[in-house]
Amino acid sequence: MQTQPLTSTDAVPRKSGITDAAPKELAKPMVSIRGLTKTYGRNGRAVTALKDISLSIRHGEFVALLGPSGVGKSTLLRCLNHLVPPTSGDVVIGGENLAKLSKRQLLAARTRIGMIFQESNLIGRLPVITNVLCGRLATLGALRALTYSFPRDDYDRAVRALRRAGLDDEELYLRRADRLSGGQKQRVGIARMLVQQPDLVLADEPIASLDVKMQATIMDLIRGIARDDGITVVMSLHQLQVARAYATRIIALSAGGVAFDGPPGDLSDSIVQDIFDIDDEGLISGAR
Ligand SMILES: Nc1ncnc2c1ncn2[C@@H]1O[C@H](COP(=O)(O)OP(=O)(O)OP(=O)(O)O)[C@@H](O)[C@H]1O
């Protein structure tokens, strides 16, 4: 692996996505889903995770996807970048219908869609900086990608991203990723997303493995970055209060369909009670 000395470049927020895009592009929805259905085959049995979902998400929205375990939140997020191909229906991102793209075009489209995962999905044996650089892999040729030979600019970008994600201590950058705390890992995952310079971020339960204090820190960080860079966020969550505090829009899933879609202020306790069971810790624990 190639490891270059680290520079001390200042963290400069990117003004892209909503700010860089031409007005015509902004008029189009960031995400448009039409008639999305996903059926998995399991042990010779069909499981329909999503049933005929249609919705649009505008540039700059912060959408919380709520619902009990198994309702289809991860499936919906993964259909949005075709990591899980829909059984039927269309997913249009920034005006591009993903089903109509060639493999190569789909890979290119995915470079503008960042992901943040519950367990951060870092490569434990690799140093922090290399994990962040992995967000640039799609921009390298095949040989460079195989040997993790990143250009100098990418190292500078990775350092800036780590700083924006709240990791200032350069000693950490060369540490193996599996030697970090849960909160540090999540910050590295956010830095890896940042170097992709995405327009859209899909976050799958990014705070589920963190303590309450770190949950707030990570949510503040993601919201701040999304606002500064004009990034659209779609995030699955189990915590009702977190969704109410951070999202500009809540979409609640129930039985594979949309049970509620609106601003947090419209999701009254009585609507919540009609849709979900909430446990003592405020987590959505089941469907009504
Ligand atoms: N690869 C798969 N093969 C078969 N069934 C699957 C697969 N992935 C998900 N499912 C099923 O699809 C349904 C929706 O699962 P999904 O993981 O999208 O739900 P979720 O709301 O994200 O759950 P959680 O909150 O537990 O992550 C579930 O019934 C699940 O068992």
UniProtKB/TrEMBL annotation:
One of its GO terms (molecular function) is ABC-type phosphonate transporter activity. NCBIfam families: ABC_phnC (TIGR02315). Residues 31-280 form the ABC transporter domain. It is a peripheral membrane protein. This is Phosphonate transport system ATP-binding protein. GO terms for cellular component: plasma membrane. SMART domains: AAA. Residues 1-10 have a biased composition (Polar residues). InterPro entries: AAA+_ATPase, ABC_transporter-like_ATP-bd, ABC_transporter-like_CS, ABC_transpr_PhnC, MetN_ABC_transporter-like, P-loop_NTPase. Keywords: ATP-binding, Cell membrane, Membrane, Nucleotide-binding, Translocase, Transport. Gene3D superfamilies: P-loop containing nucleotide triphosphate hydrolases. Residues 1-21 are annotated as: Disordered. Its main location: membrane. PROSITE patterns: ABC_TRANSPORTER_1, ABC_TRANSPORTER_2. The keyword Nucleotide-binding applies. It comes from the Bacteria.
